[in-house]
Design goal:
The complex is a heterodimer of chains A (about 110) and B (about 120).
Chain A (H helix, E strand, L loop, with lengths): L3 E4 L2 E4 L5 E7 L7 E6 L6 E5 L3 E2 L7 E6 L2 E6 L9 E6 L7 E2 L3 E5 L1
Parallel strand pairs in A: 2-11
Antiparallel strand pairs in A: 1-3, 3-8, 4-5, 4-9, 5-6, 7-8, 9-10, 9-11
Chain B lengths: L2 E5 L2 E3 L5 E8 L7 E7 L5 E7 L6 E3 L7 E6 L4 E6 L8 E8 L3 E4 L3 E5 L2
Parallel strand pairs in B: 2-11
Antiparallel strand pairs in B: 1-3, 3-8, 4-5, 4-9, 5-6, 7-8, 9-10, 9-11
Classes of the chains: A mainly beta (about 110), B mainly beta (about 120).
C-alpha cells in the first residue's frame, strides 16, 4: 500500500498570502496524484488531477506540481473561501486508493 | 446537473447490517466506475470500495473485506453498499464518488453510526 504523507498538518496564512502544501508518496505514483478541498460539513471537491491539471471551474490561483514522490499544491493568493482542509490522493497503485491525512489551512 | 445522492444511513447496533444506496443523475452512469469513501468524525478520508462501470470488477479496503459488498444496478442508475457485521469503527460519513482520472463528483454523504 502506498502511504501518502502531507505537511504541514496545519498552515496559518493571512488572506492574500501564498500557501504551499506538500504531499509525499512512499513510492513513485508517477503523475497520478489529485488534490481535494473540503470545507466543514461539506463533501470534498476535486481541485487538481494528474498532478497539475485543474478540474473544471477551479480558479487559476490553485496550481499543482510534482511527479514521482514529491508534490505541491500552491494557492497563489488566499481568499476567504480557501480556508479549508486539503487532501492529496494517489491513483497509481491500487487497490487501495490512498489519501494523505490532510492539511488544514487556517486564517493567521 | 451531475449529481450523486446517498441514502440509507442511520444508527445501528454492533454486529447488525445496513444497506446504503447512491442515486446518480445528470450523466451516463454505466460509463463510470463508482467508489465508496468514508470519513470518521473529525478524521481524514478512507477509501472503502470500488465497482467497475459494468459491475464485473470489485475491490475492497482490507478493513471492510468480507463484511461489505458493493453492487450496482445500471438500469436504475443506482449504486449500493451492503454493510454487514458492523463495528463501532465503521462509524463514518459514507460518500459515493464518481471516478475517471480522479474522484471528480462526490455525493453529500450519509452518516452511519454503529453504537450499542
Amino acid at each position: 500500500e502506498i502511504v501518502m504523507t502531507q505537511s504541514p498538518a496545519t498552515l496559518s496564512v493571512s488572506p492574500g498570502e501564498r500557501a504551499t502544501l506538500s504531499c509525499r508518496a512512499s513510492q513513485s505514483v508517477s503523475s497520478n496524484l489529485a488534490w481535494y478541498q473540503q470545507k466543514p460539513g461539506q463533501a470534498p471537491r476535486l481541485l487538481i488531477y494528474a498532478a497539475s491539471t485543474r478540474a473544471t471551474g477551479i480558479p487559476a490561483r490553485f496550481s499543482g506540481s510534482g511527479s514521482g514522490t514529491e508534490f505541491t499544491l500552491t494557492i497563489s493568493s488566499l481568499q476567504s473561501e480557501d480556508f479549508a482542509v486539503y487532501y492529496c490522493q494517489q491513483s497509481n497503485n491500487w487497490p487501495p486508493w490512498t489519501f494523505g491525512q490532510g492539511t488544514k489551512v487556517e486564517i493567521k | 446537473q451531475v449529481r450523486l445522492v446517498e441514502s440509507g444511513g442511520g444508527v445501528v447496533r454492533p454486529g447488525r447490517s445496513l444497506r446504503l444506496s447512491c442515486a446518480a443523475s445528470g450523466f451516463t452512469f454505466n460509463d463510470y466506475a463508482i467508489h465508496w469513501v468514508r470519513q470518521a468524525p473529525g478524521k481524514g478520508l478512507e477509501w472503502v470500495a470500488v465497482i467497475s462501470f459494468d459491475g464485473s470488477n470489485k475491490y475492497y479496503a482490507d478493513s471492510v473485506k468480507g463484511r461489505f459488498t458493493i453492487s450496482r444496478d445500471n438500469s436504475k442508475d443506482t449504486l449500493f453498499l451492503q454493510l454487514n457485521s458492523l463495528r463501532p469503527d465503521d462509524t463514518a460519513v459514507y460518500y459515493c464518488v464518481r471516478a475517471r482520472r480522479a474522484f471528480d463528483i462526490w455525493g453529500q454523504g450519509t452518516m452511519v453510526t454503529v453504537s450499542s
